[in-house]
Design brief:
The protein is an alpha/beta fold. The chain has helices spanning 2-48, 52-55, 60-70, and strands at 72-80, 83-85, 88-91, 96-103, 108-112, 117-121, 127-132, 137-142, 155-160.
Length: 161
């Protein structure tokens, strides 16, 4: 009787150990499943959350600034003894004008007094100026830095239609 009781006790304890191992394994699997589910939910939240920046309307000042940048008339001007290339520039009244200018040789200037433009062109490094061509007519631009014997003849024309 004692041996049979002992055998039953061993079987019983063995069963309990297996049940505990199965319960631990099930708990671990549930934890992994929950973690994966939470991770997937986080990804879904990130993907489905609307981007509010894309829904904001741009301000009127931003729109005007973009329009003005689109309508800039840009000219690259090279100054040299004793002229400008190009020598004649044409724009329409109301245009926003950008000059990018540099000197090929000695220091020069580029001045249009009617539009408040005055550039110092020391070397081949480009200088930039912008202005609104708000007056119609033909305007002289000239070298404002003494640059040699024919300095006074160094002129160009800005035609505003």
């Amino acid at each position: 009787m004692k041996i049979s009781s002992l055998i039953i006790l061993v079987i019983f304890l063995s069963s309990c150990t297996q049940v505990n191992e199965l319960q631990e394994e099930q708990t671990t699997m549930e934890h992994i499943h929950d973690s994966t589910h939470e991770h997937n939910n986080l990804n879904e939240t990130k993907e489905t959350k609307p981007d509010t920046r894309a829904m904001q309307q741009p301000s009127e000042s931003f729109i005007e600034e973009m329009k003005s940048k689109e309508n800039i008339k840009e000219f690259k001007i090279e100054a040299f003894q004793f002229g400008f290339d190009p020598e004649t520039i044409e724009v329409n009244q109301g245009d926003k004008v950008r000059f990018i200018a540099w000197s090929r040789d000695v220091p020069h200037g580029l001045k249009i007094k009617e539009f408040g433009v005055e550039m110092k062109l020391q070397d081949s490094n480009p200088q930039t100026v912008e202005f609104i061509a708000d007056k119609k007519g033909t305007f002289t631009f000239y070298c404002s830095v003494p640059c040699g014997a024919n300095h006074k003849e160094m002129k160009g024309k800005l035609i505003v239609k």
